[in-house]
Amino acid sequence: MSCSPSDEELFEEGIVKMEEGEYQKAIEYFDRALDKNPEYTSAYNAKGVALYQQKKYDDAIEAFTASIDLDDTSYKPFFNRGNAYLEKKEFKDAVLDYNKANGLDPQQGDIYYNRGLALLALEEYEDAIFDFDVVLQANPEQPLVHFNKAKALLANNDPVGAIESLVTTVNLDNRNGAAYYLLGVTQMSAFGQKEDGCTNLKMALSLGFPEAKEWVDEFCQD
User: Fold this and answer.
1) Which of 26, 32, 132, 173 is deepest in the core (most CB within 10 A)?
2) Which residue ranges make up each domain of the chain?
3) Multiple choice CATH, 140-222, 2.60.40.10, 3.40.1360.10, 1.25.40.10, 1.10.287.380
C-alpha cells in the first residue's frame, strides 16, 4: 500500500516551489491540495500569489476571492487582491480591499504604503500623504515612500513640503533620477532657484532620466 501526501504536505511543497520561483509547479501543488480539501483557504491565497507573480492578475483575483469567501478574517487575501487590483489600475477596488485588510490588521505597514499609491492615483492626495506618513513614522529610511509622498505634496499644492521630501529621497538614494528631476523642476518653477535646479536636473540626466534634457537644454546652458 502507498500513502499519498496530505493536503498540508502538498501545500507545503507548493510553498517551497514558490520560494524557488517555480510558480507554475507551485500552482499544481496548490491545486492538488485543493482537490483533497476544497475549503483550504490558505491554498487559494497561496495560489493567488503564484498567479500574481506570473502577472495573471484576473486569475489571481479569482483565487484570492475564493480564499476570502471561505474565511474573511485574515488580512492577507484582501491585501493580495488589492495588489492585483493595483496592478490592473483598478484603484477604487484596490482601496476597498486595503481598507478591509487594514481593519483586520492595522499593524501592517505595506497596507498603508500600497493604499497610499492607490489613493495617489485617485488624486486623493491628503489621504495618500497620511498613509505615507504612517509608513515613515515606523521607518523613515525609505526613499521610495518619501518620493511618492513628494508627488502627493506637489499635487496638493505644497511645493515646500515636496522639496523637503525630495531632498530626503535623494539623500537616501542618490541613484533616483526621477527624484532629482522632480526636485530640479520644482526648485526652478516654484522658487526660481536656477542654480540648484540646474544642478539637480543635470544629475537626473546623468542618471539616465531623459525628461531632464529639455529643461537642461533650455534653462541650464552656460
Assistant:
1) 132
2) 140-222
3) 1.25.40.10
pLDDT tens digit sequence for 180-203: 999 999 999 999 999 999 999 999
- The pLDDT of residue 3: 74
CA 121 to chain centre: 12
Measure the CA–CA gap between 86 and 74, rounded to whole angstroms.
19
Q: What is the pLDDT of residues 124-168, one digit of tens each?
A: 999 999 999 999 999 999 999 999 999 999 999 999 999 999 999
Within 13 Å, how many C-alpha atoms sit on residue 188's CB side?
Answer: 21
DSSP classification of residue 4: P
Q: Name the region of 193 (left: φ>0; alpha: ψ -120 to 50; beta: rest).
A: beta
For the record, the C-alpha cell of 51 comes out as 498567479
Q: What type of residue sits at position 93? A: D
